[in-house]
Write a structure and sequence with these properties.
The chain is an alpha/beta fold. It is built from eleven helices and 18 strands. Helix 4 packs across helix 5 and helix 4 crosses helix 10. The chain is globular, with a radius of gyration of 20 Å. The structure holds zinc ion (2 copies).
Length: 331
Protein backbone atom coordinates (compact mmCIF):
# COMPACT_ATOMS: atom_id res chain seq x y z
CA UNK A 1 0.00 0.00 0.00
CA UNK A 2 0.99 3.67 -0.22
CA UNK A 3 1.98 5.71 2.84
CA UNK A 4 3.41 9.19 3.31
CA UNK A 5 6.35 8.67 5.63
CA UNK A 6 8.68 11.00 7.45
CA UNK A 7 11.92 9.08 6.85
CA UNK A 8 14.14 11.62 8.64
CA UNK A 9 13.75 15.27 9.63
CA UNK A 10 13.13 17.15 6.38
CA UNK A 11 12.73 13.96 4.31
CA UNK A 12 9.07 13.08 3.70
CA UNK A 13 7.94 10.86 0.81
CA UNK A 14 5.04 8.72 -0.34
CA UNK A 15 6.33 5.15 -0.57
CA UNK A 16 5.11 1.59 -1.03
CA UNK A 17 5.04 -0.15 2.36
CA UNK A 18 3.66 -3.52 3.52
CA UNK A 19 -0.02 -3.60 4.50
CA UNK A 20 -0.09 -3.61 8.34
CA UNK A 21 -1.91 -6.36 10.24
CA UNK A 22 -3.97 -5.68 13.36
CA UNK A 23 -2.56 -7.29 16.51
CA UNK A 24 -4.56 -8.21 19.62
CA UNK A 25 -6.96 -5.41 20.54
CA UNK A 26 -6.27 -3.50 17.34
CA UNK A 27 -8.27 -2.71 14.21
CA UNK A 28 -7.25 -2.10 10.60
CA UNK A 29 -8.79 1.04 9.10
CA UNK A 30 -9.01 1.78 5.38
CA UNK A 31 -8.36 5.54 5.52
CA UNK A 32 -10.88 7.63 3.59
CA UNK A 33 -9.82 11.16 4.62
CA UNK A 34 -6.91 12.58 6.62
CA UNK A 35 -6.28 16.22 7.44
CA UNK A 36 -2.91 17.96 7.20
CA UNK A 37 -2.20 19.86 10.42
CA UNK A 38 0.39 22.46 11.39
CA UNK A 39 1.86 19.80 13.67
CA UNK A 40 2.71 17.69 10.59
CA UNK A 41 4.76 20.64 9.31
CA UNK A 42 6.44 21.07 12.72
CA UNK A 43 7.26 17.33 12.81
CA UNK A 44 8.74 17.43 9.31
CA UNK A 45 10.95 20.40 10.23
CA UNK A 46 12.09 18.84 13.52
CA UNK A 47 10.27 21.50 15.57
CA UNK A 48 8.16 18.98 17.51
CA UNK A 49 9.76 15.83 18.89
CA UNK A 50 9.26 12.48 17.13
CA UNK A 51 11.29 9.51 16.05
CA UNK A 52 11.30 8.90 12.28
CA UNK A 53 10.78 6.84 10.26
CA UNK A 54 7.03 7.13 10.84
CA UNK A 55 3.89 7.57 8.75
CA UNK A 56 2.36 10.95 9.69
CA UNK A 57 -1.36 11.78 9.93
CA UNK A 58 -3.25 12.08 13.24
CA UNK A 59 -6.57 13.55 11.99
CA UNK A 60 -8.34 10.86 10.00
CA UNK A 61 -11.37 8.67 9.50
CA UNK A 62 -12.14 5.54 7.56
CA UNK A 63 -13.79 2.13 7.57
CA UNK A 64 -12.76 -0.67 9.91
CA UNK A 65 -11.90 -3.54 7.53
CA UNK A 66 -10.21 -6.06 9.84
CA UNK A 67 -10.06 -6.87 13.54
CA UNK A 68 -7.28 -8.20 15.72
CA UNK A 69 -8.00 -10.85 18.36
CA UNK A 70 -10.19 -9.50 21.13
CA UNK A 71 -11.35 -6.33 19.34
CA UNK A 72 -15.04 -5.37 19.55
CA UNK A 73 -16.70 -7.22 16.62
CA UNK A 74 -19.29 -4.42 16.30
CA UNK A 75 -16.55 -2.17 14.90
CA UNK A 76 -16.16 -4.24 11.72
CA UNK A 77 -17.52 -2.32 8.73
CA UNK A 78 -18.09 0.87 10.74
CA UNK A 79 -16.89 4.28 9.67
CA UNK A 80 -14.76 5.53 12.57
CA UNK A 81 -12.67 8.52 13.54
CA UNK A 82 -9.48 8.10 15.49
CA UNK A 83 -8.48 9.68 18.78
CA UNK A 84 -4.73 9.49 18.15
CA UNK A 85 -3.48 9.93 21.72
CA UNK A 86 -2.73 6.75 23.65
CA UNK A 87 -2.17 7.35 27.36
CA UNK A 88 -0.50 4.75 29.58
CA UNK A 89 -3.20 4.81 32.28
CA UNK A 90 -0.74 4.26 35.13
CA UNK A 91 1.54 7.33 35.41
CA UNK A 92 0.83 10.10 37.98
CA UNK A 93 -0.83 12.31 35.33
CA UNK A 94 -3.07 9.51 34.07
CA UNK A 95 -4.01 8.51 37.63
CA UNK A 96 -5.29 12.04 38.27
CA UNK A 97 -7.27 12.11 35.02
CA UNK A 98 -4.82 14.34 33.13
CA UNK A 99 -4.39 11.89 30.27
CA UNK A 100 -3.14 14.55 27.83
CA UNK A 101 -0.16 15.08 30.16
CA UNK A 102 0.72 11.36 30.30
CA UNK A 103 4.49 11.04 30.55
CA UNK A 104 4.43 7.97 28.31
CA UNK A 105 1.97 9.42 25.79
CA UNK A 106 2.14 7.79 22.38
CA UNK A 107 0.36 9.46 19.47
CA UNK A 108 -0.78 7.80 16.26
CA UNK A 109 0.80 9.72 13.39
CA UNK A 110 3.60 11.04 15.61
CA UNK A 111 5.15 8.16 17.56
CA UNK A 112 3.56 5.29 15.60
CA UNK A 113 2.27 5.05 12.04
CA UNK A 114 -0.68 7.29 11.23
CA UNK A 115 -3.33 8.07 8.67
CA UNK A 116 -1.51 9.43 5.62
CA UNK A 117 -1.74 5.93 4.18
CA UNK A 118 -4.20 3.67 2.44
CA UNK A 119 -4.58 1.78 5.73
CA UNK A 120 -3.57 2.16 9.36
CA UNK A 121 -3.66 -0.06 12.45
CA UNK A 122 -4.84 1.56 15.70
CA UNK A 123 -5.94 0.25 19.11
CA UNK A 124 -9.67 -0.52 18.96
CA UNK A 125 -10.26 1.72 21.99
CA UNK A 126 -9.01 4.74 19.99
CA UNK A 127 -11.66 4.19 17.26
CA UNK A 128 -14.89 6.19 17.67
CA UNK A 129 -17.76 5.08 15.41
CA UNK A 130 -19.40 7.92 13.48
CA UNK A 131 -23.19 8.21 13.66
CA UNK A 132 -25.12 7.35 10.47
CA UNK A 133 -25.00 10.15 7.92
CA UNK A 134 -21.68 11.54 9.09
CA UNK A 135 -18.97 11.45 6.41
CA UNK A 136 -15.31 10.46 6.63
CA UNK A 137 -14.33 14.03 5.72
CA UNK A 138 -16.31 15.26 8.73
CA UNK A 139 -14.71 12.50 10.77
CA UNK A 140 -11.27 13.88 9.92
CA UNK A 141 -12.19 17.12 11.74
CA UNK A 142 -13.03 15.43 15.05
CA UNK A 143 -9.47 15.48 16.42
CA UNK A 144 -8.82 19.19 15.79
CA UNK A 145 -12.32 20.03 17.06
CA UNK A 146 -11.67 17.97 20.19
CA UNK A 147 -8.49 20.02 20.83
CA UNK A 148 -10.52 23.22 20.40
CA UNK A 149 -13.13 21.91 22.85
CA UNK A 150 -10.43 21.47 25.49
CA UNK A 151 -9.23 25.04 24.92
CA UNK A 152 -12.74 26.48 24.95
CA UNK A 153 -13.53 24.50 28.12
CA UNK A 154 -10.58 26.31 29.76
CA UNK A 155 -11.69 29.69 28.35
CA UNK A 156 -15.21 28.94 29.68
CA UNK A 157 -17.19 31.44 27.58
CA UNK A 158 -20.54 32.58 28.96
CA UNK A 159 -23.44 34.08 27.03
CA UNK A 160 -22.87 37.74 26.31
CA UNK A 161 -19.12 37.70 26.98
CA UNK A 162 -16.59 38.87 24.42
CA UNK A 163 -13.96 36.57 22.95
CA UNK A 164 -11.06 37.46 20.68
CA UNK A 165 -9.67 34.60 18.61
CA UNK A 166 -6.19 35.09 17.18
CA UNK A 167 -5.58 33.09 14.01
CA UNK A 168 -7.81 32.16 11.10
CA UNK A 169 -6.65 28.60 10.49
CA UNK A 170 -8.75 25.54 11.17
CA UNK A 171 -8.23 25.78 14.94
CA UNK A 172 -9.27 29.45 14.95
CA UNK A 173 -12.34 28.85 12.79
CA UNK A 174 -13.50 25.83 14.83
CA UNK A 175 -12.87 27.69 18.10
CA UNK A 176 -14.85 30.64 16.73
CA UNK A 177 -17.84 28.37 16.14
CA UNK A 178 -17.61 26.84 19.64
CA UNK A 179 -17.43 30.25 21.29
CA UNK A 180 -20.48 31.38 19.30
CA UNK A 181 -22.36 28.19 20.28
CA UNK A 182 -21.71 29.16 23.92
CA UNK A 183 -23.43 32.49 23.29
CA UNK A 184 -20.35 34.72 23.39
CA UNK A 185 -19.60 37.55 20.99
CA UNK A 186 -16.55 36.62 18.93
CA UNK A 187 -13.96 38.63 17.02
CA UNK A 188 -11.53 36.79 14.78
CA UNK A 189 -8.14 38.36 14.05
CA UNK A 190 -6.16 37.31 10.98
CA UNK A 191 -4.18 39.13 8.34
CA UNK A 192 -5.87 37.18 5.54
CA UNK A 193 -8.98 38.78 3.99
CA UNK A 194 -10.40 35.47 2.76
CA UNK A 195 -10.29 34.02 6.27
CA UNK A 196 -11.97 37.10 7.75
CA UNK A 197 -14.77 36.72 5.18
CA UNK A 198 -15.11 33.04 6.09
CA UNK A 199 -15.18 33.91 9.82
CA UNK A 200 -18.04 36.34 9.21
CA UNK A 201 -20.09 33.54 7.62
CA UNK A 202 -19.31 31.25 10.59
CA UNK A 203 -20.64 33.60 13.26
CA UNK A 204 -17.94 36.19 14.01
CA UNK A 205 -19.57 39.47 15.04
CA UNK A 206 -16.36 41.33 14.19
CA UNK A 207 -13.09 40.66 12.40
CA UNK A 208 -9.77 42.49 12.39
CA UNK A 209 -6.63 42.31 10.28
CA UNK A 210 -4.20 43.27 13.04
CA UNK A 211 -3.94 43.34 16.82
CA UNK A 212 -4.03 47.16 16.70
CA UNK A 213 -7.29 47.07 14.75
CA UNK A 214 -8.76 44.62 17.29
CA UNK A 215 -7.81 47.05 20.09
CA UNK A 216 -9.51 49.91 18.25
CA UNK A 217 -12.70 47.87 17.73
CA UNK A 218 -12.93 46.63 21.35
CA UNK A 219 -10.93 49.19 23.36
CA UNK A 220 -12.02 47.70 26.70
CA UNK A 221 -10.52 44.34 25.78
CA UNK A 222 -12.17 40.93 25.71
CA UNK A 223 -13.24 38.65 28.53
CA UNK A 224 -11.17 35.93 26.92
CA UNK A 225 -8.47 35.81 24.26
CA UNK A 226 -7.78 32.49 22.58
CA UNK A 227 -4.48 32.17 20.71
CA UNK A 228 -4.89 29.78 17.78
CA UNK A 229 -2.10 30.90 15.46
CA UNK A 230 0.93 29.38 17.14
CA UNK A 231 3.19 32.33 16.41
CA UNK A 232 5.24 34.35 18.89
CA UNK A 233 3.69 37.66 17.85
CA UNK A 234 0.11 36.64 18.72
CA UNK A 235 1.11 34.85 21.95
CA UNK A 236 2.85 38.08 23.01
CA UNK A 237 -0.16 40.21 22.03
CA UNK A 238 -2.82 38.01 23.65
CA UNK A 239 -2.65 39.38 27.25
CA UNK A 240 -2.83 42.97 25.96
CA UNK A 241 -6.17 42.20 24.29
CA UNK A 242 -7.74 40.84 27.50
CA UNK A 243 -9.72 43.09 29.85
CA UNK A 244 -8.57 43.35 33.46
CA UNK A 245 -9.56 40.10 35.16
CA UNK A 246 -9.79 38.38 31.78
CA UNK A 247 -8.31 35.10 30.68
CA UNK A 248 -5.96 33.99 27.92
CA UNK A 249 -5.82 30.48 26.50
CA UNK A 250 -2.93 29.51 24.22
CA UNK A 251 -3.74 26.62 21.88
CA UNK A 252 -1.27 27.35 19.09
CA UNK A 253 1.90 25.25 18.88
CA UNK A 254 5.15 27.22 18.71
CA UNK A 255 8.37 25.48 17.69
CA UNK A 256 10.00 23.75 20.67
CA UNK A 257 12.50 26.11 22.33
CA UNK A 258 11.01 29.34 20.99
CA UNK A 259 10.44 31.98 23.71
CA UNK A 260 8.25 35.08 23.95
CA UNK A 261 8.29 38.18 26.17
CA UNK A 262 5.57 38.55 28.78
CA UNK A 263 5.00 41.43 31.22
CA UNK A 264 4.43 39.85 34.65
CA UNK A 265 3.62 43.22 36.27
CA UNK A 266 0.79 43.76 33.80
CA UNK A 267 -0.47 40.17 34.22
CA UNK A 268 -0.32 40.56 38.02
CA UNK A 269 -1.93 43.94 38.44
CA UNK A 270 -4.68 43.14 35.96
CA UNK A 271 -5.03 39.53 37.19
CA UNK A 272 -4.89 38.02 33.73
CA UNK A 273 -5.26 34.23 33.87
CA UNK A 274 -2.87 32.60 31.42
CA UNK A 275 -3.78 29.04 30.39
CA UNK A 276 -2.38 26.56 27.90
CA UNK A 277 -4.54 23.89 26.28
CA UNK A 278 -2.81 20.74 25.02
CA UNK A 279 -4.53 17.98 23.04
CA UNK A 280 -8.00 16.57 23.51
CA UNK A 281 -8.55 14.92 26.92
CA UNK A 282 -11.99 13.26 26.97
CA UNK A 283 -13.38 15.66 24.34
CA UNK A 284 -13.34 13.63 21.12
CA UNK A 285 -16.80 12.07 21.49
CA UNK A 286 -18.28 15.54 22.10
CA UNK A 287 -16.60 16.61 18.84
CA UNK A 288 -18.25 13.72 16.99
CA UNK A 289 -21.64 14.68 18.42
CA UNK A 290 -21.33 18.38 17.53
CA UNK A 291 -20.39 17.67 13.91
CA UNK A 292 -23.00 14.91 13.55
CA UNK A 293 -25.69 17.30 14.82
CA UNK A 294 -24.64 19.94 12.28
CA UNK A 295 -23.81 22.41 15.06
CA UNK A 296 -20.21 22.78 13.88
CA UNK A 297 -19.63 23.28 10.16
CA UNK A 298 -16.58 21.70 8.58
CA UNK A 299 -17.30 21.69 4.82
CA UNK A 300 -16.49 25.44 4.43
CA UNK A 301 -13.07 24.74 6.00
CA UNK A 302 -11.94 22.27 3.31
CA UNK A 303 -9.68 24.17 0.90
CA UNK A 304 -8.19 21.31 -1.15
CA UNK A 305 -8.45 17.57 -1.52
CA UNK A 306 -5.26 15.82 -2.65
CA UNK A 307 -4.00 12.27 -3.24
CA UNK A 308 -1.21 10.69 -1.17
CA UNK A 309 1.34 11.44 -3.89
CA UNK A 310 0.81 15.19 -3.36
CA UNK A 311 0.92 14.99 0.45
CA UNK A 312 4.72 15.37 0.92
CA UNK A 313 4.81 18.70 -0.95
CA UNK A 314 1.69 19.96 0.84
CA UNK A 315 3.27 19.12 4.22
CA UNK A 316 6.72 20.53 3.38
CA UNK A 317 5.33 23.86 2.16
CA UNK A 318 3.60 26.46 4.31
CA UNK A 319 -0.19 26.63 3.93
CA UNK A 320 -1.15 28.65 0.85
CA UNK A 321 -2.75 32.07 1.36
CA UNK A 322 -6.40 31.65 2.35
CA UNK A 323 -5.99 27.91 2.76
CA UNK A 324 -7.64 26.42 5.85
CA UNK A 325 -7.64 22.59 5.73
CA UNK A 326 -6.09 20.32 3.14
CA UNK A 327 -7.56 16.82 3.16
CA UNK A 328 -5.58 13.85 1.90
CA UNK A 329 -7.85 11.28 0.26
CA UNK A 330 -5.78 8.07 0.01
CA UNK A 331 -8.30 6.53 -2.43
ZN1 LIG B 1 -3.50 18.21 14.39
ZN1 LIG C 1 0.20 8.02 31.65
Amino acid sequence: MLATRLRAIGDIRTDQVPMPEPGPGEVLIRVAAAGICGTDRHLTRGEFPCRPPVTLGHEFAGEVVALGIGSDPHLLGRLVTCDPNIACGTCPACLTGRINLCRALSAIGVHRDGGFAQAVVIPAHRALPLPPGMTAEEGAFCEPLACCLHGVDLAAPRPGERAIILGGGVIGLLTLQLVCLAGADAMLVTRQDAKRDLAATLGASATAGTVAEAQRLWPGGADMVIECAGVAETVTAAPHLARSGGRVVVMGVLPQGETVAIDPFDLLTREIALHFAFLNPFTQSRAVGLIAAGRIRTAPLVSRRIPLHDAPAAIREDARPGEVKVLVLPG
